[in-house]
Write a structure and sequence with these properties.
The chain is of the alpha/beta class and 242 residues long. It has one domain: Nucleoside phosphorylase domain (Rossmann fold). The protein is 25% helix and 29% strand. The chain is built from 5 helices and 9 strands. It has a 5-stranded mixed β-barrel with strand order 5-8-7-6-9, surrounded by 4 helices. A hairpin with a 2-residue loop joins strand 2 and strand 3. Helix 2 crosses helix 5. It is globular, with a radius of gyration of 17 Å. The N and C termini lie close together (10 Å). 42% of the residues are buried. Bound molecules: hypoxanthine. The site of hypoxanthine has 12 residues, from strand 5, strand 8 and strand 9.
Length: 242
């Protein structure tokens, strides 16, 4: 089984027939969409809920990832709206997330390993994203921007210009509010995971005095394109053990 996790602007998958399903996990119930017919091996999970009602800092990330694992998902791609800090990924462009900096501050339930009967484990994050899935994404679209570092803030507020200057100096190329938590839990759960970032604005203070978002029509086009390359990559990645 394979999954796509969608976020802002990606609340459903165009062209995929799917049925709403509730999955019970030890962390809570998760609403997701299971494909039917030719898409029966696909799960779509809208991380903010199907009506976009859950803000990034209140998403039940552990339940979401656990639900995928319980359904037998072994590989997943998360789609992330971001604001651009460096010139690497400019607004309107799509990139493969290479690494992340977690600036969420520890206020989220961000790990499965909480001690007690879960034991203590320190899962390596030197390769948080799956190289074979990344390669499959690039096969689907060789113009994807590679090598990006995602800075994950707690949100839901956007950043100040001083914060963005700070994150840029730390090595971040773009900023969002969900990827680090999702990717690290996916790694802890043993899922093969990749992240696609699409930029919808220059981050605060980078260009101009106010944050300006690209228009909805451009976002729709990016969303359709990302769905297609995710489906291609999930169906055709380079891991022969799959
Ligand atoms: N900051 C944080 N998250 C975001 C942004 C941003 O500028 N744009 C899209 N998601």
């Amino acid at each position: 089984m394979k999954a796509i996790i969608g976020g802002t602007g990606v609340d459903s998958l165009p062209g995929i027939e799917a049925e709403r399903t509730l999955v019970s996990t030890p962390y809570g119930e998760v609403e997701l969409f299971k494909g039917r017919g030719k898409d029966a091996s696909l799960v779509f999970l809208p991380r903010h809920g199907s009506n976009h009602e859950v803000p990034p800092h209140l998403i039940n990330y552990r339940a979401n990832i656990k639900a995928l694992a319980l359904l037998g998902v072994t590989k997943a791609i998360g789609i992330y709206a971001v604001g651009s800090i460096s010139n690497l990924l400019q607004p309107g462009k799509i990139g493969i997330v290479e690494d992340f900096i977690d600036m969420t501050g520890g206020g989220r339930n961000h790990t499965f390993f909480t001690g007690g009967k879960e034991l203590v484990r320190h899962v390596a994050m030197d390769c948080a994203f799956d190289p074979a899935l990344n390669a499959a994404l690039l096969d689907g679209d060789s113009s994807l921007v590679t090598g990006g570092v995602y800075c994950c803030t707690n949100g839901p507020r956007l950043e100040t210009p001083a914060e963005i200057r700070c994150y840029g100096r730390l090595g971040a190329d773009y900023v969002g509010m969900t990827c680090a938590t999702e990717a690290s839990l996916a790694k802890e759960a043993g899922l093969r995971f990749a992240g696609l970032a699409y930029s919808i604005n220059w981050a605060a203070g980078v260009e101009g005095n106010t944050v300006q978002f690209i228009d909805d029509c451009a976002i729709e086009k990016l969303k359709d394109h990302m769905t297609n390359i995710c489906l291609l990559a999930l169906g055709d990645d380079h891991d022969k053990n799959d």
